[in-house]
UniProtKB/TrEMBL annotation, chains A, B:
Gene Ontology molecular function: any one: GTP binding
Family: Belongs to the mannose-6-phosphate isomerase type 2 family.
Catalysed reaction, written as an equation: alpha-D-mannose 1-phosphate + GTP + H(+) = GDP-alpha-D-mannose + diphosphate
Signal peptide extent: none
Keyword Nucleotide-binding: yes
UniProt KW keywords: GTP-binding, Nucleotide-binding, Nucleotidyltransferase, Transferase
EC number: 2.7.7.13
Entry-linked CDD domains: GDP-M1P_Guanylyltransferase
Stated name of the protein: mannose-1-phosphate guanylyltransferase
Organism: Labedaea rhizosphaerae
Length: 363, 363
């Protein structure tokens, strides 16, 4: 049975809310933000190995990171590392992987998990995936919805048909975008909502059918690219056709309209998931306490009269804090960020400002 | 007349409240904290040149800084750069210079000014020094007292016999140590107090007499060292005798008891003086505004929603601030300080903590 399951890991996105630690040239998924020496990508790989052997693991990544991915995951066959000539968002990346897998086996089950999430209980994760695989075999487009631990406004939500039961598949009525604080509180109070972590499981044929229906403008160029795979024209077709694919997220392009058609179901997951989306979360999950500050990493830190602050000493230098509170201090070899802790969601605004000012070397 | 005036610049002290910019190996006076490319030491030299030619300028400094001083002040004769084998505080440094000058000309007038102060109006400074020289010729131990601009608690105060008149010498009744905030407010309200900036002018014979009376334990070893100067035993005597000199500040050792004897007078100075003692002052005096932060120096700084903060980008890296206020951020190649602005007086506590933890390489 495991020979039928392929797992796709889209490894893109630079994690702008983790700037300056995460960069275009050195994105979040390549960093060891796991509490061990393994990178987020490697930890993702590690928790997939109970489900499949390495030949069934595929990574979709950009030109800048293909070599790093290849070295961080030496067990994954080179052929399984699909390199996008430029980022075209998740629908294109996932469609490419689905079409590549379908070319070999149209009945294969495919599961897709981001490269830069953290999961505290890998055993519970594996069990949840297995339950979702069963739903996918029955022809449904499955998603794993995360049992909310609070009224987060940074995530999209999945509206279930009733209060979800862990380990049991049930239909998804609707994908809801990131809510306001009040709406998020209502969602969580109702018990009928799960976080959308963009974890998907489906038969590749079922997904490609839905894609054909809702976004033929994505499927058509992907089909041309996959048709040219393993021919002399492969690189040229990829280079010419890939840039024409619309940039759209698979959640909105396919799963939302499919949910409205009653074709999407979920298995609720409760396995200590985090997308480590910002420094606030990073400090909570991975820091060791040092003189009243949460320190992520191994650098030298000195704190005097400091409270509720997070330090990421990643520049190889001494970091000293005096009399401060509620701060995020991120030190890297060429850039330093000092931010109020409750503004961590706005770190991407700093990266936008850098772009405006032409300081793109720091992105 | 100018041939009678010698000027001594004690260039010691690492400026621990300016850590990590100022270090034991790279003290405040060697840094260009002047708004130009000239270091504080060079700016000190520059404002002395209307008073004397370079052969009459002497610098007393430590072994670690002798070469830097020699290169920063190429006009000062090598012989005039007196090198202390180890720091023994200001009484020893000034006594050594006084004895060296007295050996050539016991009737010479000597003036002493720190190497790391900033003066906005050098013309007014020169006029004030000239007025003090007249007082010194009359045999008094003169000090230049700074007209207070506010009730500062970081300075010692000079108690005058009556409200001082600018440019006019008058007796000092007492040296007062750093006061509390309430006491400082009383001092300033009375109009009878000046800040003690340790600027002294005297006939060397008058100073050495006062030293003989109040601190023979300092004078005696200094005499032995100066007697050996220009002999084969010079280095050996210096190395053996210097460490035996008591560590004491000249203000307390000589000027305080001399004031009690009615031998000290002052000329009030109002020439935009600052000792640039901490980052708060540095930000006020030397910063250019950038997105709501005061930036000292030339580094790249990006600020979003930032208020009343001071950035010293001295590490060659980008510094980004987001949503912070009342902070001091000092970036250097090997150490970073983030401090609440009202804690700048406590920066030296950070250096003490570094010492405790054996991180002396950062001092």
């Amino acid at each position: 049975m495991s020979t039928d399951l392929h797992i796709v890991v889209p490894a893109g996105g630079s994690g702008t809310r983790l700037w300056p630690l995460s960069r275009a040239a050195s994105p979040k998924f390549l960093h060891p933000l796991t509490g061990t020496e393994r990178s987020l990508l490697q930890a993702t790989y590690d928790r997939l190995t109970p489900l499949v052997t390495p030949e069934f693991i595929h990574v979709v990544t950009g030109t800048s990171h293909a070599t790093a991915v290849a070295r961080q995951l030496p067990e994954v066959p080179e052929r399984n590392i699909l390199v996008e000539p430029m980022p075209r968002d998740s629908c294109a990346a996932i469609a490419l992987a689905a079409a590549v897998i379908a070319k070999e086996n149209p009945d294969a089950i495919m599961a897709s998990f981001a490269a830069d999430h953290l999961i505290a209980d890998p055993g519970a994760f594996v069990d949840t995936v297995r339950a979702a695989v069963e739903g996918a075999k029955a022809g449904r487009l499955m998603t794993i919805g995360i049992t909310p631990t609070g009224p987060e406004t940074g995530f999209g939500y999945l509206r279930c048909s009733s209060v979800p039961v862990p380990g049991t598949a049930q239909p998804i009525l609707e994908f809801r975008e990131k809510p306001s604080a009040e709406v998020a509180a209502e969602y969580v109070a109702s018990g009928e909502y799960l976080w959308n972590a963009s974890m998907f499981v489906w038969r590749v044929s079922a997904f490609l059918e839905a894609l054909a229906e809702h976004r033929p403008d994505v499927l058509e160029p992907v089909r041309r690219i996959v048709a040219a795979r393993d021919t002399a024209a492969e690189e040229q077709v990829l280079a010419e056709v890939w840039p024409t694919i619309p940039k759209v997220a698979v959640d909105y392009a396919v799963m939302e309209p499919a949910a409205a058609q009653g074709r999407v179901a979920t298995v609720p997951g409760d396995f200590g998931w985090s997308d480590i989306g910002d420094f606030d979360t990073l400090g909570e999950l991975l820091a060791k306490t040092c003189d009243g500050a949460a320190v992520v990493g191994e650098g030298e830190v000195i704190c005097l009269d400091t409270e509720d602050s997070v330090v990421v000493p990643h520049g190889g230098r001494l970091v000293a804090l005096l009399g401060v509170r509620d701060l995020i201090v991120v030190d890297t070899p060429d850039a330093l960020l000092v931010a109020r802790r409750d503004r961590t969601q706005d770190v991407k605004k700093v990266t936008e400002l850098l772009k405006e000012r032409g300081l793109t070397g720091f992105l």
